[in-house]
Amino acid sequence: MSASDALAAHLGWRPFRHRPDCAKPVWEVDQQSDPDARRSRRGGPEHACPNEDCGHSSHYDRVTVRVLCRSCGTVHLISGEEHTSRTTTTASTGYGQPPKRVGGLWLYPGPPLLDLSWEKSGPGAYLCSLEKVERLTDKDIVGAIGEGRGARGGAIWSAGALPTFRPSVTGRPEPFPTWARGSGDTTFKTVAAAAKWVKAEVDAATATETTEDQSQ
């Protein structure tokens, strides 16, 4: 069971911060593109492109994103070279969709299993939380549910519960989970059935911890 795409969609992102006294914390986001910006002689390292036929030399394609709050006056400017830009949806990125209550848990959607623009499929994974929160953190996540394919090509679901997170060894921004419980060869026909399995594992672990605390 892999929920790495869902974890990458929800974890490892840092929100922009307003001033503590901001009365109306709303960001206004704009972008500006300059396809022929000229590099200053003292504006950075000497241009050294490995492509011998490179034509831009001291010119480059620059994009600047401005994130501004009119209330507290905070402005974040993000700029870079050789950028890419595309417009997509929350259903495609897997972040920004509202969570849904299933099997006693709040399920936060990830991106589709297959990133195909013509496939109108739903999320390929869900992150599970006991509480509804505005933004998930690793401390909120108690399980994950991932989509797979059965012997006849139909959708099946597997699950993991009770994660322990540690920093990624590959340099990824989101932490890496180790699941204390996994459904293994047991698969589920529906997301609801998988969610109920996760909730049962969480409840069992909570009951065990309570018993151990009482015996001490």
Tell me about this structure.
The chain is built from 3 helices and 9 strands; from the N terminus they run H-E-E-E-H-E-E-E-E-E-E-H. With 216 residues, it is of the alpha+beta class. The strands form 2 sheets. The chain has a 6-stranded antiparallel β-sheet. The chain has a 3-stranded antiparallel β-sheet with strand order 1-2-3, with no helix packed on it. It is globular.
Layout: helices, strands, pairs:
Layout: H1 4-10, E1 28-38, E2 59-68, E3 75-81, H2 90-93, E4 100-102, E5 105-109, E6 125-129, E7 141-149, E8 155-166, E9 176-182, H3 191-215
Antiparallel strand pairs: 1-2, 2-3, 4-5, 5-6, 6-7, 7-8, 8-9
The total of helices stands at 3
In what order do the strands lie side by side in the largest sheet? Answer: 4-5-6-7-8-9
Relative strand content: 25-35%
Mean pLDDT: 86
Characterize the largest beta sheet: strand count, sense, and whether it forms a barrel. Answer: 6 strands, antiparallel
**Strand count:** 9
Which parts are unreliable, with pLDDT below 50 for 5 consecutive residues or more?
none
